[in-house]
């Protein structure tokens, strides 16, 4: 939703192979279908990613590195605010992990 969806729509309109990295499979797939229908680009894909989970970030990055021949643009757009204080299963504060640690790790893993 929001800025991330707008950026993905623009990239798809430019005929880019576009990967939507989403926490929620149903909402992500709905966005994929909407973007495909609006742009005619069949190369819009969904991959699951929760930036609050470093294990999820590592799995996502590993799949991208294995399966994609190249990566030209990375848009780190995940972010939350106003969540109640919570600790992830990895012992990290959830908002900090989602907004900073996860995107930082993802970028560094994808640099190759």
From TrEMBL:
<keyword id="KW-0560">Oxidoreductase</keyword>
<dbReference type="InterPro" id="IPR036291">
    <property type="entry name" value="NAD(P)-bd_dom_sf"/>
</dbReference>
<dbReference type="GO" id="GO:0016491">
    <property type="term" value="F:oxidoreductase activity"/>
</dbReference>
<dbReference type="Pfam" id="PF00106">
    <property type="entry name" value="adh_short"/>
</dbReference>
<protein>
    <submittedName>
        <fullName>RDH11 dehydrogenase</fullName>
    </submittedName>
</protein>
<dbReference type="InterPro" id="IPR002347">
    <property type="entry name" value="SDR_fam"/>
</dbReference>
<comment type="similarity">
    <text>Belongs to the short-chain dehydrogenases/reductases (SDR) family.</text>
</comment>
């Amino acid at each position: 939703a929001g800025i991330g969806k707008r950026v993905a729509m623009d990239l798809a309109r430019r005929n880019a192979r576009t990967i939507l990295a989403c926490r929620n499979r149903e909402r992500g797939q709905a966005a994929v279908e909407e973007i495909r229908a609006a742009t005619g680009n069949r190369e819009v894909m969904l991959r699951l990613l929760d930036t609050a989970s470093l294990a999820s970030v590592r799995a996502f990055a590993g799949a991208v590195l294995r399966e994609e021949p190249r990566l030209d643009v990375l848009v780190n757009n995940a972010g939350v605010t106003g969540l109640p204080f919570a600790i992830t299963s990895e012992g990290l504060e959830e908002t900090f992990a989602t907004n900073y640690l996860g995107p930082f790790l993802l970028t560094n893993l994808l640099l190759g």
